[in-house]
Design a protein that fits this description.
Layout (H helix, E strand, L loop, with lengths): L7 H7 L4 E4 L3 H13 L5 E4 L10 E3 L11 E4 L3 H13 L5 E3 L14 H12 L4 E2 L6 E3 L4 E3 L12 E6 L2 H8 L7 E6 L8 H9 L4 E8 L5 H14 L2 E6 L4 H11 L6 H11 L2 E3 L2 H14 L7 E5 L2 H14 L8 H11 L9 E2 L8 H12 L6 E5 L14 H13 L4 E5 L7 H9 L3 E4 L1 H10 L20 E3 L1 H9 L9 E3 L2 H9 L5 E5 L11 E5 L2 H11 L4 E5 L4 E12 L3 E8 L4 H4 L2 E5 L4 H9 L4 H5 L9 H17 L4 E12 L2 E4 L2 E5 L3
Parallel strand pairs: 1-2, 1-4, 2-3, 4-5, 5-6, 9-10, 9-11, 11-12, 12-13, 14-15, 14-16, 16-17, 17-18
Antiparallel strand pairs: 7-8, 7-10, 19-29, 20-23, 21-22, 21-23, 24-25, 24-27, 25-26, 27-28, 27-29
Helix pairs in contact: 3-4, 6-7, 10-16, 11-16, 12-13, 13-14, 18-19
Amino acid sequence: MHQNPANAPLARVLSPRNMVVIGGGAWGQAVIEQARKFGFDGPIWAIHPSKEIVGADQTVPALDDLGFVPDVAYVAVNRHATIDIIRHLSQMGAGGAVCFASGFSEAAAETSDGAQLQTDLITAAGSMPILGPNCYGFINGLDGVCVWPDQHGMTPTDRGVAIVTQSSNMMINLTMQRRGLPIAYALTAGNQARVDLVDLAMHALNDPRVSAIGLHIEGVSDTDKLYDLALRAQGLGKGIVAIKVGTSEQSQTATISHTASMAGSAVAARALFDRLGIGLVDDLPCFLEALKILHHYGPLANRRIVSMSCSGGEASLIADLGQAIGIEFPILSDTQRAGLRDALGPKVALANPLDYHTYIWGDTGAMAQCFSAMLSGDDLGLGVVIVDFPLADRCDPAAWNCVIDAAAIAKQNTSTPLALLSTLPEGIDEATEHRLQAVGVLCLRGLSDALNAVMAAQRPAPIGPRPWKSQILHDPVTLLEMPAKSALAQFGVPVPRSVVCTDFDALTAAFADMEKPVVLKTSQAAHKTETGGVVVGIDTFDDLHAAAHEIGTWPLLMEPMASGGVAEILVAVQNDQVHGYTLTLGAGGIYTEILRDTVSVTLPVNEHDIRTTLARLKLYPILSGYRGKAGADLGSVVAAIMAVQDYVGANLTRLAEVEINPLIAQTHGAVAVDALIRKDLE
């Protein structure tokens, strides 16, 4: 039996030579039945004080009666008894256990003792690995091991993807897929008391028979471990795709009650996964399609694809869907055009996506020549042939054999990855998919699912420095504009000269000595525009006094208006309690909520990262100079943002939030005209 040396304790559990089932109820009985059905040929013993368990090689009344030390134990008893059994297993040197019982920290909101029981369980386990609690177990399709109490759709395989999830029921659904995706490991973590999702993923990743990793994540417990996983995957040339749930208010509530894991924000999650080169998808069909790409070809070189179909409607549809999400359809080269013209004759308009019409349908040689010509382009990530196969029970599919045969020939003629792509998810059945796999051709199902999968299966850029971990705060307070700008200025953030005035005499004196026009603001509110707390463009004493009466609350803050402004930028940093520190840049000022033009990245970043992030904004053409108008001093903008990061780095253990809104991007310079900070005080 294969042993993965990367994690010997987990290897003993996930590739066991023997198995013990503790608990004689229906669940324990089912574990034995499923293990034998899947082909596990090692000894299975059962523990029960009074009755014989059907299917077990032998039943004994207690663990001490085994006469050997088990590699893996399935513990299917109540939560209180589970703790004593786990302690006994650990003391006798067992390899590890699956804890089926629920009612631990995942149920802390419903049970007064759930959190304490989880602590007791961890203590009882010591260094012994446990999966769960609130966990079904695992299936190892590579070594014929099934420690699982329910039906599933897994079949043994020599090579495949590993899917890891906290949700056992979700895993059942995933194993039932009929998309021709071989699953090597189905691993569930439950509420991750001792072994978490990333531990399981790292073990599977280091198995040379595993082609890719799929993560269904309800909560990230340790961003450092996730970083290490991503770094290892990149080093091995294997892809990771994830579906992250728990970003909506409703799903966060469900997630916390189900897994005892904090869910975190959608923006911070996407920023973190982008940083780590983990493809993030929104639904399970796209998740499976991305895993198929990664299993078959590994991470794709880029998002540049060529598309071939015998319908103009299909060509138009894939063009519209692809361009909307960032798929690139490169213009045909002279070499491609020459090969296509030889294959198709003079009547077909040559383009990408290509409608090759039906002139050559049924002519396998001509179709293969057409496909090969399209795939001969430079620097392509993928080529797709769009085809939906007929229902075999109602139609004769023989006429479609030419597509399969031509695709197989084209695949041999070129190094560009090739897939047959159905417009509908049901357009390719499982039998056809297996037939195509036998000739080395990938199948993708459903245009939208497949195109989003292509985006998720890109080869990531080299992973940068380790993300800054989130910090637990105690009682953060808000520093309003004046103290916030003063704190940021100490780290190099440019701020205007400001004066705080407590009465009209001080205001008048300060105004006489300040460059005009000025801005007058309340110093007692975080959001001034919405409350009438700011007046701009003041250049006379009468206007000054009128503005002070209009605002109505003292003390007042006065500063000169920033000149030479090209655009207003939002610069914000959030300490997301799950995903770490996230920098958000966007259109600032009064347009922040209206335009919602923002891009977020995980800290730390460098100057190149900031420039790349700014370039992704819809605001960027204005910053860079639009229609002959002067652009912003991007060097100063970048320097100001780097200074904000310096402040964050110096206050990591106490900081909740920093916001500059706006940072005025000027033709010569940049200046932060409003700011706030939330942090724990020293």
